[in-house]
Amino acid sequence: MLLARLRRGARVPPPWCELAVGGLWAVSAVHWVYGPLAARWLPVLLGLGWLAVAAAAVDLRHRRLPDALTLPALPAALVLLAPLGGQAVLRGMLGAVVLAGVHAAIHFAAPRAMGAGDVKLAGPLGAVLAASSWPAVPLGAVVAALLTALVATLGVTVGLLARGDALPHGPSMLAAGWLVVAGAAAG
User: Fold this and answer.
1) How far apart are CA 23 and CA 46, in angstroms?
2) pTM above threshold 0.85
3) Under a CB-based contact definition with an 8 Å cutoff, are residues 92 and 77 in contact?
4) Environment class of 125 (CB within 10 Å of its CB; exposed 0-12, middle 13-18, buried 19+)
5) CA 72 to mean position of chain CA atoms
6) Which long-range contacts (CB under 8 A, 24 or more apart) does 25-31 make?
7) Given its phi and psi angles, is residue 66 left (phi above 0), alpha (psi -120 to 50 degrees) or beta?
8) pLDDT tens digits along 77-134
9) CB 132 within 8 A of CB 99
10) DSSP for 86-114, written as a single string
11) Residue 11, pLDDT above cutoff 70
């Protein structure tokens, strides 16, 4: 319902988003209760999980990442990083600049390869990745690229996509970001 209310919103039939958020939140909680995840990382994973589902749902249905999700995500990420300490917030700010800068360079060099929404999404993802560790930033970017390439290859192989079809990169960025942050935060 929230996605439908956004400016240029998206209608995603229930219960897909609700089930996906609930699943990611359950995995995060189990990772915290029974695993090595520190309690101070739990809000970061919960927030990132919500953003991942909401933004991916819109990107998959409408091939765009709405500003109403991507622009407030960076300040929200930095607020969620605050309990981790000043160093984590500083790394988060620097990571946001680095990853958004790299994505912006790709967008300007090859606009068809990466949309402006992906550039805006790179900021909050860079923040949480860098806060978890500096090596997580390039790892998240590489995993995202590999996921997109895998989906494209499978799509062409099974006939769902033709060569050269546009494929949203946001869902891969979000999935990679969540997985890398969950792993790095636990380690």
Assistant:
1) 11
2) yes
3) yes
4) buried
5) 13
6) 25/49, 27/182, 28/182, 31/182, 31/186
7) beta
8) 999 999 999 999 999 999 999 999 999 999 999 998 899 999 999 999 999 999 999 9
9) no
10) HHHHHHHHHHHHHHHHHHHHHHHH-TTTS
11) yes
Residue ranges of domains in the chain: 2-186
Asked if the model's pLDDT at residue 1 lies above 70, the reply is no
Residue 84's closest CA among 53, 42, 50? 42
Check residue 9 and give its pLDDT.
67
Task: Report how far apart the first and last C-alpha atoms of the chain are (Å, whole number).
Answer: 36
Provide mean pLDDT across the span 71-77: 97
Q: Which long-range contacts (CB under 8 A, 24 or more apart) does 46-52 make?
A: 47/76, 47/77, 47/80, 48/77, 48/128, 48/174, 48/177, 48/178, 48/181, 49/21, 49/24, 49/25, 49/178, 50/21, 50/24, 51/124, 51/174, 52/24, 52/171, 52/174, 52/175, 52/177, 52/178
CA–CA gap between residue 85 and residue 94 (Å, rounded): 15
User: In whole angstroms, what is the distance from residue 145 CA to residue 127 CA?
Assistant: 18
- Please provide the size of the chain in residues: 187
CA distances (Å), 187 to each of 36, 46, 77, in order?
Answer: 7, 18, 20
